[in-house]
Amino acid sequence: MTSSRIGTRASGPLRLVAALILTSCVPDAEPPIRDPGTVRLDGADGPAILSRTVDDTLSGVEPLAEAVPPAAATGVLAPRPAVSLIDVDPAAYLRELRLLVPVAGMSRDELPPSNFDQARGTRRHEAYDILAPRGTPVLAATGGRVAALHVSEAGGNTVYTIDRSERFVLFYAHLDRYHPGIHEGMPVSRGDTVGYVGTTGNAPPTVPHLHFAIVLMGEERRWWSGTPLDPQPLLARD
Fold first, then answer.
1. Which helix (H) or strand (E) holds 94?
2. 85-120 burial, b if ≥16 CB within 10 A, otherwise e?
3. Taking a C-beta distance cutoff of 8 angstroms, is the pair 161, 191 a contact?
4. 10-residue averages of pLDDT along the chain (238 residues)
5. Which ranges in 1-44 belong to alpha helices (H)?
6. From CA 63, how far away is CA 158, in angstroms rounded?
7. Which stretches of the chain are assigned E, i.e. beta strand?
8. pTM for this model (two decimals)
């Protein structure tokens, strides 16, 4: 509308200059973030869930520290996008994504209370533990890409994914094993199987569970560090 009004008041070179100025002042719109739907890599539904409560034995387990990246990893991701809802209210942004409960066969209403602030050894947990039988498929909570497949003494077999906004890291730890088709850099969709519940790392061998964490990356844009957010209240009731 503005460019048409200017067109009635100017002509020739003046109109062209005005149009160029207006075009340069309009910021690029961020592309919408959408999930193409629930697609699992193997289609497995997994065994029935046996337990809904986090066992007391987990309270003595040291939590996962910030991951130490492989020596070959640069850790530098894509340039940070423009300011958006993520910067104003990260939790609100994640709720808009309708994060999937990352354990197959379990609904949001069946989940135990948050254990994000519980003590794990000498540190705060800063993640959400979901008990499930060993071998239960672990599902990507939202679409994005695989940033790293990382093995550590604390987390064991861990999958790190980056959401489509390139701002959040979601990681899935203590996996019994990875999904055989997964590899670093590949895209993932909401509901894809990324691995299977286990007890690798420092998880008690008799308490298989998923350690699920969400981190808002900082200015340095590294997949192994950032500000942790409580995942439990952000999961959708699908």
1. helix 90-97
2. ebeeebeebbeebebbbbbbbbeeeebeeebbebeb
3. no
4. 42 43 40 34 36 48 54 52 72 94 94 73 75 97 95 94 93 96 96 98 94 87 78 90
5. 2-9, 13-25
6. 13
7. 119-120, 123-124, 128-131, 137-139, 144-152, 156-163, 168-178, 187-188, 193-197, 209-216, 227-229
8. 0.66
